[in-house]
Amino acid sequence: MSPKFRQEESVSVLMINAQGMMLSVLGQDYFVSYNRVPWLRDARVSSALNVRMAGPNAIEWPELDIDLEIESLKHPERYPLVMKRSPLDIV
Asked: Can you list the residues of the chain whose pLDDT is less than 70?
């Protein structure tokens, strides 16, 4: 029998500094650089601390509308940052 999945204890912010934040996700620690996730750079601390599991394979910051797959934390080189422009951005 597997241990009960406890969402609230599965992800937490360990540290925030000028370069990014250290997360603990499912018992593993990951550094998330603002260069890789620039949307976190100007977030209020309270919003950055409000991170939770979004199912067994992803985390989310609901107040910031940011979702990350856990696999992208393990292997960031496989997930290049790509920003798609909308035609409305030109207006």
From this structure: 1-9, 82-91
pTM of the model: 0.76
Structure tokens at 11: 């992800």
> Any idea of the CA torsion for 76, 7, 5, 25, to the nearest 10 degrees?
30
Starting at the edge strand found earlier in the chain, the sheet holding 58-61 runs 52-53, 58-61, 66-69
CB 52 within 8 A of CB 8: yes
Number of domains forming the structure of the chain: 1
CA distance 52 to 89: 31
Residue 50 included in any domain = yes
